[in-house]
Amino acid sequence: MESEIFSVGEVTRYIKYLFDNDEILTGISIRGEISNFKCHNSGHFYFSLKDEEAQIHCVMFKSRNMNLDFFPQNGLKVIATGYITVYEKNGEYQLYVEKLEKDGIGELYLQFQKLKEKLQEEGLFDDSRKKNLPFLPKNIGIVTSINGAALRDLLTVIKRRFPNVNITIAPVSVQGEQAKDEISEGIELLNIYGNVDVIIVGRGGGSIEELWAFNEEKVARAIAGSKIPVISAVGHQTDFTIADFVADMRAPTPSAAGEMVIPEKDKLRSNLEIMKKRLFKRLEAIISTKRQEVEYLKRHYTGKKFNIILNTKRQDLDEVLKNLINCMENMIDERKTAFNYLVEKLNALNPLAVLSRGYSICQDEKGKIINSIEDVSIDQSVKVMLWDGFLKCNVNSREKRVIE
């Protein structure tokens, strides 16, 4: 006897029927830690509840979440109450949350808060230490995964806004055990060798575990220690990391960082043209005003009187020029006097000037000055410096001078 064959839809609807008629699943409370949290544009919440053994997908519609007294975040431990059924389109079961309560803080979230408080006490979040972003950077540094969507988004936005800007990429891992070391080294290398004006550090969205490298103290201190301004662009708008608080600027997404880091070239050109037109109009207005003044003078000071005024102004100009030349000559004389004084002082200290008065300096073969007869031995070669040259001599005897 052949078994009956069902369609996918029929099987899915049957499984959904079992879920919907199970007494436990139609009104259940589950304790777990929030992960992969996303707030949709519609206002609905989508997330997972997990523990050490498993995870379950959850949805909480806007009508149910609008009265919550807290905003869910990755890492929060909660108790979610609702019903479990199958979403037929995907063939997946999920928890439809009708009530959500805090149940303490997850381990990662606890680490996050502890490090945040520590760095905040040290002043690493203070606005006073944050650097301003350059208005028009010539070279932009990016620290992220070479294969990530974040890099593609950044390059697309930056090149669209300012096509000929230079970009230096420090490829790193953005999750995993080695990520914190690679991200820190990438920031340091761009500071030393990158010749960049601003640095963007970040990655695309993910769970709190996937974003955790940007909550590491080593990464935070690398950002804080950067001499170059740093933009943190980690995850989505609702994702917050330690890197966001330490950085000089936080971008809600990598694409937003691209818009934040450089202005649009076309808009700059347009603004320059507007300013140029305003400047020319202003100059034309000034010239027109001056012409009117000249015409007024011509009308009211005609003939000889006008020439008298003009000649007076010319004489005033000559007087100003004469005073300016005298001032410059006096200044030059003062500088010459000071210079000659310094030259005389240098000549007084010049050893050759002393030698010219009949003195000499005795040196050994290595050029070391001999200060005492104890510094030489009989038959030793010495060199005697005079004002116009050297004498090479041999020591025949040593006589000690008696000082009374």
Automatic annotation (TrEMBL):
Chemical reaction(s) catalysed: Exonucleolytic cleavage in either 5'- to 3'- or 3'- to 5'-direction to yield nucleoside 5'-phosphates
Record's keyword annotation contains Endoplasmic reticulum: no
Pfam family, one: Exonuc_VII_L
UniProt keyword annotation of Hydrolase present: yes
Enzyme Commission designation: 3.1.11.6
Cellular location(s): Cytoplasm
Domain Exonuclease VII large subunit C-terminal: 124-336
Gene Ontology cellular component terms for the protein in this record: cytoplasm; exodeoxyribonuclease VII complex
Enzyme superclass (EC): hydrolase
Alphabetized UniProt keyword annotations: Cytoplasm, Exonuclease, Hydrolase, Nuclease
Domain OB-fold nucleic acid binding, first and last residues per copy: 6-100
Recorded GO MF terms: exodeoxyribonuclease VII activity; nucleic acid binding
Domain of life of the native organism: Bacteria
BP GO terms, sorted: DNA catabolic process
Family of the protein in this entry: Belongs to the XseA family.
PANTHER family with a match to the protein in the record: EXODEOXYRIBONUCLEASE 7 LARGE SUBUNIT
Function: Bidirectionally degrades single-stranded DNA into large acid-insoluble oligonucleotides, which are then degraded further into small acid-soluble oligonucleotides.
Self-association and partners: Heterooligomer composed of large and small subunits.
Protein name: Exodeoxyribonuclease 7 large subunit
